[in-house]
Amino acid sequence: MLRDGTAENSEDKICKGKEQNHKRIIEVKKMERYMILIRTDGTGRLIRCDDGDTCKLETLQQLVGGLIETADSCLEPGWAREPVDSIKLIVNEEGLLQELPINWKAMELYQYGYMSGIVGTAVLAAARGGELIGFAKPVCETICEEFGIDMEDGIWND
């Protein structure tokens, strides 16, 4: 029954359900997203996405110190706690040629760490539909705690 005394049919219920789902999707879109920067000394920092759900190419290039490439992480998409295709490490494309220092924390997260290394600063992000997106802050906290990435003091305080 609706407030005006009329009966609610199944179409009305479906429409309301779709509206609620649409509102939830909009709320997810509006949430602040972060990528996790992993330095070669094992410390990390949250990088707030500067282009909606993602970071600008220039920002990512500045963070890793050059042209970027993505590498598969060992994390399953479920770590993101939302629908994503995969979770990627963003690294300096020429890091090996430049003889950048090994990034042991990033190597722990690298899918093929047993075959080759990750060097230089790395950034961890989710991939969805060909786009690199950030995580919700609680997801970042879980990943950092699980993999022992030491973050700046007070980062998890809201």
Give keywords:
158 residues, alpha+beta, 22% strand
Globally, the shape reads globular
- Any idea what the radius of gyration is? 20 Å
* Largest sheet, strands/sense/barrel: 7 strands, mixed
Give the H and E element order. HEEHEEHEEHE
Q: Count the beta strands.
A: 7
The helix tally amounts to 4
Distance between the termini: 41 Å
Helix content: 25-40%
Chain-averaged pLDDT: 85
Structural class: alpha+beta
Unreliable runs? none
Beta-strand proportion: 15-25%
Descriptive account of the structure:
The protein has 158 residues and is α+β, with helices and mostly antiparallel strands. The protein is built from four helices and seven strands. It has helices at 10-30, 57-64, 104-109, 137-147; strands spanning 34-38, 43-48, 68-72, 86-92, 122-128, 131-133, 150-151. Strands 1, 2, 3, 4, 5, 6 and 7 form a seven-stranded mixed sheet that branches. A hairpin with a 4-residue loop joins strand 1 and strand 2.
Please summarize what this structure is.
With about 160 residues, this protein is an alpha+beta fold. Helices cover about 30% and strands about 20% of the residues.
